């Protein structure tokens, strides 16, 4: 009996992502490892080791694989990220003091997601490249990427073994913030195959959807690091169940699998791991297409536009958003999603007129009845559009109007949307700094920081890194000093 293929974790590293992508394309073309190896004149064993992340792939082999698999150059482009992210140096942990006996400057109080270095030679903002933001915290392996204040005041990344970080965090904070391998997490395991979770009188599709809704609620309040492993585990369980079903049941399970993939993409996006987010978004589009879930395909396409915006890629943002709008029902929430995310892409390109027009279109849609009978995008309302418009206004340099927009959106947020409040506060703080000065900006930044520390949202920390870099000149202002001290207390320090 052939051995079951090893499960791959594309979020573990750049090389692991490349291996997972290679396996995906090979299996899509229905080729064995030996058959693919024969096409590109290498052994099947080498293909196996590349897929498992055990061996690197050379550029000429990646090009040959692209040609053999008809990927359109996906592997060659992906190899650029693998080479760029390759860690050829010893672990950065040797540079850090993680003891609890030192001064405040050596005290790690919690795990911080990745943020972009505040380097005067490469300012944070629209100019930052996607690879820098995509160098993300690994949530499910033996090492994690954490934020660190360097000796010259910048914020950068370091790699630390999870166990060593866990010991230092526990000693300082008195509580485990990230589970060690094999330990229980903050959220109790929700194995779908456990007794009592899959109700015998409810269809498995509905059971898995109910479980997904509970994970969405946890994510809203606790952040991505507490639920991503569960989401991926549910996908594995659905895949097993699909092997035992046929017909409409298997198609419906495929749609739920696609819904989970889109959710995992979101979790990784909020964690700052854009490469993994792209991987799961691509799987969601593929699986939703197989399932015939046209609305989910449109929704994920719009979400890919949002992801491209977070990656500061204005052209992809606009193109993906326009693609979503072309296939969405006119005047639907799905079309409004495309308009909103496309508007931000126009703002990143400096096209104020196109951005304003797209937002006007989105406001018009959410003000009227939804013509789409599906539930996708029902969360998109006027206050959400206002918050996104404020972000784009800030990118265009209209900071005063951006502040007003953020304040309006924050007032309209439900209390349970804690992480969104943190994102809006952090973005508002940057706009406030330009419009109203450092004091109100620091106050908003401190409020956002408390939420960032609790949820582990890289989107919040990224905005706070921008704020921190811009406020260095006002370091003597009381509110600024308090904010920067609080930020220091939730990250490691280079000594």
Automatic annotation (TrEMBL):
Protein name, entry field: Helix-turn-helix domain-containing protein
Basic and acidic residues composition bias: residue spans: 81-98
InterPro entries noted in UniProt: Cro/C1-type_HTH (IPR001387), Lambda_DNA-bd_dom_sf (IPR010982), TPR-like_helical_dom_sf (IPR011990)
Cross-referenced CDD domains: HTH_XRE
Pfam family, one: HTH_31
Region Disordered: start-end pairs: 81-115
Classification via PROSITE patterns: HTH_CROC1
Superkingdom of origin organism: Bacteria
Segments forming domain HTH cro/C1-type: 22-75
